[in-house]
Amino acid sequence: MNILIINAGSSSLKYQLIDMQDESVRAKGQVERIGIEGSNLKQKVGGLEYQIIAPMKNHIEAIEHMLKALTDSEKGAVKSMDEIGAVGHRVLHGGADFTKSMIIDDKVMDAIRACIPLGPLHNPANIMGIEACQKVMPNTPMVAVFDTAFHQTMPAESYLYGIPMEYYERLKIRRYGFHGTSHRYVSKRAADFLGVDAQKGYRMITCHLGNGSSICAVKDGKCFDTSMGLTPLEGVLMGTRSGSVDPAALQFIMNSDNISVDEMLTILNKKSGLLGISGKSSDMRDIDRMADEGDERCIMARNILVHTIKKFVGAYAAEMGGVDAIVFTAGIGENNNALRERIMDGFEYLGAKLDKEKNKGRGEMIISTDDSKVKILVIPTNEELAIARDTLALVSK
Ligand code: ADP
Question: Can you give the pTM of this predicted structure?
């Protein structure tokens, strides 16, 4: 069966068509500038590239163009839409209602809509993507896979904030955590790779380091704690997001510069992190290059990033009473060996010894020394494949 994976943003849409027989990617594409001038679609099928620039007023038109591209007689991946057996949708916020992926029906849609206040930037876009697909392919089963679901096993001491309980009870204010599909995929894959039974007393720390970054404590194969919170803004320093900040500092800035809450949140989401500290770039490759050339602000940005990641790794080892494996994934985690070395430097006391030569390798690998008590690994994440597997499992039932 071919499964279509859709990740819809407010003005963009990324997709992959995966053949579940061998889990190979048959097509990969993205639509950008939906509803804005210059809407365009780019798709790759093997070596064939399909590209169009055409007005796309909304997600329905974007999905119509996507299906046209996928079924194109020359550069498409399938002959007709009938060859797409199911669609898996990435949904950002599932609140506390969803602990696993779900077949989409009216009840599930209502619950995703009810989570809009918790994910105001992403959930409306995810909903548009689902509704557009339902219109264009009404007979194809659809599955929602939530970024928050894996984290629903956290105990209350991990997910409650130290604020009056009424805000949790009345407004559902708590830590939800994100990148759950990635943390679930890499923690499971790491356990398989190591040949360990992660369900029994095994303690793992997974570091998803990309433009957005989060760290997760995984105990007995389940999420025990994670660095992102009610929204993906909390936790470690990111490309343009601040990570954790004293909320009173924000009041200070807002009063002093007379800016609104919305403006403050835009600064925290879009102008902070590596970009805010360096004043130059949100991309770690740029930061590394300029830091290596001696740029003080880029050195500072890199140091802060390393420092905040170390803090979470240390905290999670303490919370779980130790750690058996530390896993790196996503753009920075998979590719930036120098940063991995900086992060792991000083963790020997915990029994985690990095093998600097192995750390220079690529792909899925163990990068700790043979005598390291704690295994250190790189596991490339594959959220699309995880979504496709969930989708297949649900629609095959
Ligand atoms: P997103 O969170 O948007 O999915 P990624 O996981 O691709 O993003 O992470 C983007 C970050 O990863 C950037 O800071 C970038 O510098 C870094 N990165 C991505 N690919 C590489 C690479 N091949 N080598 C070094 N760094 C990389």
Answer: 0.95
